[in-house]
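lol forgot to send this yesterday, sorry. struct tokens for the thing we talked abt
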């Protein structure tokens, strides 16, 4: 979550708040630390990590925060930071998406302890908030790509993109069957279906239909944003409901996200873009056919961009987050 944390921190700074970000270098987007960042190695069994951790704890204590924000933390030593001020726990999902995301028991207990001891808990959707065993404030989820990093709008659109970690819940076999049907429909306009990302997906090169490519590697945003920005649509047709960063990034780029009725959150989706049945191959193929028309793809992509700006911009998300942080600080005073 390092990239999203940076977006939150910089929007909070723009609103006049002082922030110190203590994080780790586990995101695939590798960048140098910024002035407000302290990057630690979260490996408790490695004694070389103890000195940097204790120095950062001392710095944070001298800094005297009004509130400590906790996100995805799996190093139990980092509980030292939560003792410095009232804590607010940010929770992205209420359950693992599939068996590949199940964490060890001790990590799940650690994560639960952060929520139990937090002054406030934040979820990024009504969907997740309703499924948590404790009250949670809802803050809009925003994209982890700053507006300044977006590529220029494309001159023309082509291809469909499925981007991210290729895990079972991404529902790729259904997408491939729908793509095959689209190729035979007479509505295909020469586009490719691009799968961008690595992961444990059990699909071989031989299983891929024509005009489909799986570029099986980890991408930096600089590599993938131009491909996604010029796509006719982004496939987010997942099997399990998820607060999808890809869904939001697609809208931010002006690309229509195609979601399932059980895997894409309706509260995120643009108007007039309903979810498609999770096993509805024909319905998904029909949407491929509609969006194959570049004029239709452009019009619906523009509507998606406007929807993002209206509901999910960084400024709007942080305006609500700042309110929750202020309430947490007051609750403890």
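and heres what i got for the seq, position by position
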């Amino acid at each position: 979550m390092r990239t999203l944390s940076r977006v939150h921190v910089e929007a909070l700074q723009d609103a006049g708040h002082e922030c110190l970000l203590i994080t780790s270098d586990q995101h695939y987007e590798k960048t140098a630390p910024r002035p407000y960042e302290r990057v630690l190695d979260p490996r408790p069994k490695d004694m070389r990590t103890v000195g940097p951790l204790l120095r950062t704890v001392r710095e944070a204590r001298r800094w005297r925060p009004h509130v400590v924000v906790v996100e995805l933390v799996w190093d139990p030593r980092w509980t030292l930071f939560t003792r410095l001020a009232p804590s607010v726990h940010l929770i992205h999902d209420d359950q693992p998406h599939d068996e590949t995301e199940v964490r060890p028991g001790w990590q799940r207990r650690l994560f639960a302890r952060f929520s139990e001891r937090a002054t406030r808990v934040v979820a990024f959707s009504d969907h997740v908030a309703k499924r948590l065993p404790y009250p949670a404030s809802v803050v809009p989820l925003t994209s982890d790509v700053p507006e300044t990093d977006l590529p220029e709008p494309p001159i023309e659109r082509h291809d469909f993109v499925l981007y991210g970690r290729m895990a079972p819940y991404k529902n790729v076999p259904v997408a491939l069957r729908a793509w095959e049907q689209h190729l035979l429909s007479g509505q295909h306009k020469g586009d490719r279906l691009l799968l961008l990302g690595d992961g444990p997906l059990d699909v071989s090169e031989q299983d891929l239909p024509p005009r489909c490519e799986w570029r099986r590697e980890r991408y930096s945003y600089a590599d993938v944003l131009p491909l996604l920005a010029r796509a006719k649509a982004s496939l987010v047709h997942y099997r399990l409901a998820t607060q999808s960063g890809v869904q939001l990034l697609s809208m931010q780029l002006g690309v229509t996200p195609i979601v399932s009725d059980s895997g894409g959150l309706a509260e995120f989706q643009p108007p007039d873009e309903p979810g498609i049945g999770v096993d509805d191959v024909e319905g998904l193929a029909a949407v491929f056919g509609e969006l194959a028309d570049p004029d239709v793809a452009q019009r619906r992509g523009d509507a998606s961009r406007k929807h993002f700006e209206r509901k999910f911009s960084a400024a709007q998300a942080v305006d609500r987050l700042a309110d929750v942080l202020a309430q947490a600080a007051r609750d403890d005073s």
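The chain has eleven helices and eleven strands. anyway ping me if u want another try
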